[in-house]
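Re: Re: token formats

Sure, here are both.
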Amino acid sequence: MNVLETEWWTMALPPEWWADSEEDSILVGDRDDVGCIEISTLHKEEGEFDVQTVRNIAQEESEQALEWRPVTLGDFAGVRSSYIEEDTAVREWYVARGALLLFITYSCDEENRGMDDAAVDELLDTLMVLEASRLTNLPRRQCPLRAPAWTPSQCRFSAPLRAF
């Protein structure tokens, strides 16, 4: 098992999965090209994210009305939902720990919906925050929340920057 480490969090990564950094997010996918995970990290300038704030952000950022359910992913807690858009199955999570908020999407062709769900859940359940002492000296930067569009050969993402 490999470990994917960013400046703010870590996640276990089995050998059959790859990871890459793209602008303000991390992309993770399986070598079979079934689907792709994108993780964007946001920092709150002051204070911490609470459960209701995370839920509000999820509802405000969604382009459609979704049913948001509570979820815990490793050290993070928040909400999750899923939907189909233009033949693409999308799962979304908004999870926070302290001043960190992760916006996570997993997308695949609709025909592959559910195929990697267990593996994706297992990966995301290994998300761990780096020690608070290591976080205090890091530069603060804001990352965009982005809506995914996925094709079998690659992951593509686009959306406006939004700061919290």
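Second one below.
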Amino acid sequence: MAFRHACGYGDRPFDPDDSMPSIHAIALLFPLAAAPVFAQSVADVGGKQPTSTAPANVGVGDTHTLWSPQLPTPFVDENAAPAAFMKAAEGAIAAGRLGEAQEAIERAESRALDRSVRPSKAGQPSQQKLVHQLADARRALGAGDRAGALRLLQAAMANPEAAAKED
């Protein structure tokens, strides 16, 4: 009672029933005030996406977040054939830029997946050998096996499908 009076809350004695509406108001308004904070995902803090120079979220075993950091973009035309992205990945691995190598391999996979299929088959995974070779190279890179990733990329480069996707 003395605390309430001493802190300038009024001249009347403390009544616990008087404070209940304000506690309820705080409890109801807190989620609304905190919503903008919670709405910011980890992947968009301060308007910037987290970046990484190392392979990340390559497979189930190393995926620890709901988001993937932004990887460095390889210096390859976005419409290039998979082979151009594979060459960029080889160069990035040799230079120790593993995040860039992962991004280049993923882009090569995406370019290799450009295909025409009947709508009834659109949900079926691709059985293209090149797509499987690139996925294996990406997994090797994610496991830290640089030599294995390079070997798998070289095998994929020998695949005729690697150069056939030029636009």
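The helical segments are 2-6, 16-39, 82-94, 98-112, 129-142, 146-157. The chain has two domains: 2-39, 60-162.
- S.
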